[in-house]
Design brief:
The protein is α+β, with helices and mostly antiparallel strands and 82 residues long. It has 2 domains: 3-39; 44-82. It has 1 helix and 3 strands. Strands 2-1-3 form a 3-stranded antiparallel beta sheet, with no helix packed on it.
Length: 82
């Protein structure tokens, strides 16, 4: 059972629909119009290269946040002599 994206030409609403072989989506859930266009759905791609890029970005973000935390902690210690 494929999932298709649809665009309603009457109201401009985009939505997804699970289509069974014998049952076709015939109207928009927003305006109940029937002037629909089936759109190409973009697949979700997962790969080792994409995972590695995501992990590098996360490590970079974490390093920046750690540096900011250390700086904030040091500033607090310098300005609060308890």
């Amino acid at each position: 059972m494929p999932i298709y994206d649809y665009l309603c030409h009457e109201c401009g609403h985009e939505f997804e629909g699970l289509v069974r072989k014998e049952i076709e989506i015939t109207d928009c859930p927003s305006c109940h119009g029937n002037d629909l266009e089936r759109l190409l759905s973009m697949p979700s791609v997962h790969s080792e290269a994409r995972k590695e890029r995501s992990m590098r970005a996360a490590r970079k973000r974490d390093k920046i946040q750690a540096t900011e935390r250390e700086y904030t902690q040091r500033q607090y210690e310098l300005n609060h002599d308890d």
